[in-house]
Amino acid sequence: MKLCFFDDQRLGVVIDGTVRDVTGVLDRLPAYRPPLPRFDPVVAALPELRDALLEAARAAPGRPVADVRFHSPVANPGKVVAAPVNYQAHLDEVAADPATFSRAHAVRIQESGLFLKATSSVVGTSAGVTLRFPDRRSDHEIELVAVIGKPGSNIAEADALDHVAGYTLGLDMTLRGKEERSFRKSIDSYTVLGPWLVTADEFGDPADVALSVRVNGQLRQEARTKDLVLSVRSLIAFASSFYTLHPGDILMTGTPEGVGPVAPGDVLTAFVERVGTAEVAIRSA
Ligand code: MN
User: How remote is the CA of residue 199 from the centroid of ligand 1, in Å?
Assistant: First the structure.
């Protein structure tokens, strides 16, 4: 199943290139009082909502995906966990260009650990990216994104994929410079997710998935997840060895070689196999 939020924050299921409005199913969610849960309510309830979502989708009229605006498919992620240099060829390009990439980042991921991005940086693919400092370099980073579905701490690699609700496409946009990585990557709109969440049962094994990004039609990054240094399984085990993962938590798995600058007016064509393609506009503030 492909799940999305679209237009005026309607909940949708995507079937055969059309979006079916299933917002009414949200009435089945419990009402929450503060303190609010650390998980995303929709992702947490997906197993129970699944049949109702499919039933509502079958009955709803479809609108072409080209006619709607997609928001982040996870409305309220508790945290955005991200993998630094997690493809060997990207580590090589980082190490070779200290003028662009901070020296501190030419480190093996097993030593550096993971980092966090502010959840306020998350947008859907239709929102596009707004460059807050257009005179400085901002780069595209195409990534496969796993969305946690089942809570866990100290998760074993063998069990890790049981904790995934689904997968989506992500752009981990990055301002270059000397500030802390989490600061530079947490600018509003610098975490692009979407256009929809593909549930894990439909997506299958994330071990060898193609991903790419073009800028104004020109190919910039192209790789397969089999070349990840730490696999999706390993990343989940690693992350959960430091903190509990909750439903709706976002795991950005790292970007391959070929990162490069974007400018206002550019259009990114981002692709993740089994998710699809999204056009993402770059603009200035
Ligand atoms: Mn990244």
Answer: 22
